[in-house]
Design brief:
By secondary structure, the protein is mainly alpha-helical. The protein has 7 helices and no strands. Helix content is 62%, strand content 0%. Helix 1 (15-24) runs antiparallel to helix 6 and helix 5 (103-127) crosses helix 7 (163-179).
Length: 191
């Protein structure tokens, strides 16, 4: 992870999955989960400090809102950017349209998409065993948390690479349950 940070802040999105994994590991004690977070938090913190102290990043452009240098700009535009990215990754909508759409239309699309997906995703998650359920939950949560670092720029599908790891897994589970609703788990071979 520390080496990957040398490639840029996009790597911070992977931390979303680590946070989600550690938040859903209920059998582990808090100290062990904190240690799991520290493996990512320390390199990420060092990266962010160096980024800020050395003055790296974009300055003066209207398309980038550094959460460290321009927190108000980041927070002000985050809801719209989040809505565009979530609808793009879960519904396949055009990110260009979402950036230009009136807020009410984007809200209707987001609520409608949620209503469309909540039943199949919830039914799929309920049908999973405990271990599979935990994995699916951290993949789902991680895909959303991973959006945090990319909310600093104008929304585009190219920013969804890390988040779609979790989305792809959940979509695969839903499709598998829909196409093969009565399929049994494979029996272990004895030999």
């Amino acid at each position: 992870f520390a080496l990957a940070l040398c490639a840029g802040e996009y790597t911070l999105s992977f931390a979303g999955y680590v946070v989600a994994i550690e938040a859903t590991r209920r059998k582990e004690g808090l100290a062990r989960r904190a240690l799991g977070l520290a493996v990512v938090a320390f390199p990420a913190g060092a990266y962010l400090v160096a980024h800020s102290v050395l003055g790296y990043g974009v300055h003066g452009g209207g398309l980038y809102h550094d959460p460290l240098q321009d927190p108000a700009g980041y927070i002000a535009g985050a809801p719209r950017r989040l809505a565009v990215l979530v609808t793009s990754m879960w519904l396949g909508t055009d990110d260009g349209w979402g950036s230009l759409a009136p807020a009410w239309a984007l809200g209707v699309l987001l609520v409608g998409g949620f209503a469309l997906l909540v039943v199949p995703v919830t039914r799929t998650l309920r049908a999973l065993g405990a271990e599979e359920h935990a994995r699916a939950v951290w993949l789902f949560a991680g895909s959303l948390i991973a959006l945090g670092p990319v909310l600093s720029v104008e929304p585009s599908r190219r920013l969804l690479g890390v988040s779609t790891i979790g989305v792809s897994a959940i979509a695969a589970l839903v499709i598998d349950r829909a196409w093969f609703p009565h399929a049994r788990a494979p029996q272990s071979r004895r030999g």
